[in-house]
Structures are given as C-alpha cells and as structure tokens.
Amino acid sequence: MSSPCSAMAYHHDSRQIFVGQDNGAIMEFHISEDFNKMNFVKTYPAHQNRVSAITFCLASEWVISTGHDKCISWMCTRSGSMLGRHYFTSWASCLQYDHETRHAFIGDYSGQITLLKLEQNTCSVITTLKGHEGSITSLWWDPVQRLLFSGASDHSIIMWDIGGRKGRTLLLQGHHDKVQAICYIQLTRQLVSCSADGGIAVWNMDISREEAPQWLESDSCQKCEQPFFWNIKQMWDTKTLGLRQHHCRKCGQAVCGKCSTKRSSYPIMGFEFQVRVCDSCFESIKDEDRTSLATFHEGKHNISHMSMDISRGLMVTCGSDRIVKIWDMTPVVGCSLATGFSSR
Known about the structure:
This protein has three helices and 27 strands. The chain is mainly beta. The strands form eight sheets. The protein has a four-stranded antiparallel β-sheet with strand order 1-2-3-4, with no helix packed on it. Strands 5-6-7-8 form a four-stranded antiparallel β-sheet, with no helix packed on it. The radius of gyration is 23 Å and the shape is globular.
C-alpha cells in the first residue's frame, strides 16, 4: 500500500476486497479459494482525499465510495473507469446503498443525510434528511422494513422511515459519546450501537415507541406566559425581566426554568437518560414508564468500528487503541432456532 488504509469493503460471494486509502485511491484484490493469498487486481482513482466508506454491488459491477473530498463516486469494476460523481458541501463520512433500487444514503460532517438515486452516468437528489446536531458518524440501512438508522457525534441515533416517507420517526439517546457504529438485527427487531467511549447499547425496537416532538417556538413561556429574554416588548409592558428558554422533551413546549424544574427518563420516546420535562409532563409519567427499553454494556475500549455476524450472534469491535475484540452477543440478542441463532 502506498498510503494508509482508511476504509474497506469485502464481498464474500465473489471474494473481492476493496481497500480505500488516505490518498483517495481504492485498491481491489481477489482472495484465493483457500484464503491464503490476496491477488492485486486494479487501482481506482476514486477520490482526491481520504476514502471514508466503500460498498460493492455485484449485480451492476459498481464500486461506490465516499471521501473527504466532499463527494460520492461510483466506478465500473470491469473497466476501472469512473462512471459518476456527486459533490456535497461537507466531507462525506459514511455510506449505505440499496442494491435493488440503486439508492445511496450519504452522511456528512454537517449532520445532513442525502438520498441519491444513482444511474449509469448521472444521479438525482431524492431528498435530504436533517435532524442531527452533529456530524453523521454511522449509517445502517434495513432493506426489508426500509428503515434507515443514523448515529452522530451528538451522541444520538435517529430512525428514519424511508419506506413510509415519514422522515424522522424516532430519536434514541442512550450514549455519552459519539455513536460510531450501528447494526439493526431485522430478525429480532434489535438495534446494536457502539460509541467512542466504549458504550454498547442493545435497543428493543419490537415495541410501539413514541416519536419525540418537534420543539415549539414561542416568545414567552407556554406555561406561565412570562416573556423570554429576547421579548423586549412584553418585558417593557409587564416591567419584568426576561427568562431563559428551555424545551420539554416530552411535549416539546417552550418553557422557562421555573416551569421545568424536573428531570425524568422516558424510554418509550428514546430518552434512556434523565432529560428536562415540564412539571405537568413529569406528573403524567408513571414509574413503569421509566422502565428501560435497552440494555447497556461496557466495551472497555474506544470503539471506532463494529461488525456483526448475525447468524452466530458474534460481534467484532476495533478501536483507536489498536485492540480487536470478539463478543458473544447471544445472551443479549437471543440464541434460539426462532431467531436464527445457534449456540456455539
């Protein structure tokens, strides 16, 4: 390798491996049947800067990649030639691809996700998804339920209902650091997420959850009607000092600190930690509503990448500490014939 490796994609059936590098090139290798030899095939001039993500589509013979040159590129593996490029306003950080519909999902450092329809030599923007307050660090596409999951540096995960065209449907907050890897297990309706501080969360998605409300805008507290500090007119008329604005995470109303003195977890809305709620919403939350809908585990190393072998219930994590760990996940994600897992 002429440059440090930054991304990799392996296609098991064809035994092709694609390695992205810091200099923007992608090198293709073919692995021998006995897995004892890697034969170099060709180099693709994919990007002008670090390759951040790669995927390979055998049906169309495309290698698709994103990079820190703010673009997605797709190239023909037969000829090695560039088919198309599309540029973004920020570094493209992660990629998912639907092979059947040729839809690509690209997360970037601005916190935006772009949905593209790729054609042979062109592409069209279908929509952009905005909901994160930090850069997109991980994506997972489930083609069966047509759900997209995104993890970000704002410590949160969002589930987007792409098939139902509903946009953001769930906000999940259970990590203390940026979410760097996610995997949705369609068979058991569980989401596994890993963060930079080593936190591993297994979310139960096989229940009816509530969507977190959009935050409402108001010039005064929607409970006591006291003006916020930018509401000069009402402050003058009422001869009162303006208050700082907060938002109740359960109802979304704009409230002052005096009307939102309580904190509570509310797992059915994705809040596994205690968050600010208005006093009336706090009274409406029962003890059973605070029961966690996720399990949390300590990875004890910085997790930058994760891969699941769903058929065996195994998970591999690696991090900036140069440690690779293999986890038996069957105790937390099931190990019966019904779920498709077999005990080792």
